[in-house]
Amino acid sequence: MSGQLQEMSDLLRQRLSVVQQLAAANAEHHRLLQLSGGADFLTLHTPDELDEDKPQNPAAPALDANAALLDDLNAKLEQIDKLLEKANTKGKRHE
């Protein structure tokens, strides 16, 4: 039983770490969205200007990278949750 408690404890520590990373990545994503919105506002053009003359949003690559990070962290969290559920189910069978 002690090994199972250690496993659960380790998984919960990992989960907490991933949740903290998710919170930081979400805050960064929000900051990047604000930056992107500001950049879009600065590049507003008149209807007679061509879209290809419009400069690329400088925040777009960072937003894409951050979105990928969020996807990875959410996948990690899902994996940890599955392991926690499995460990919890295993513990209930031994009670």
- Overall pLDDT metric: 86
Give me the number of helical elements.
2
DSSP strand tally: 0
Q: What structural class do the secondary elements suggest?
A: mainly alpha
Instruction: Bin the strand percentage.
Output: under 5%
Q: How does the overall form come out from the CA principal axes?
A: rod-shaped
Largest beta-sheet characterization: none
Can you tell me the residue ranges where pLDDT is under 50 for at least 5 consecutive residues?
A: none
Q: How much is the radius of gyration in Å?
A: 22 Å
Distance between the termini: 10 Å
* Run of helices and strands: HH
Give the helix proportion (percent range).
over 70%
What does this protein structure show overall?
It contains 2 helices and no strands. With 95 residues, it is mostly helical. The protein is rod-shaped, with a radius of gyration of 22 Å. The model has no long low-confidence stretch (mean pLDDT 86).
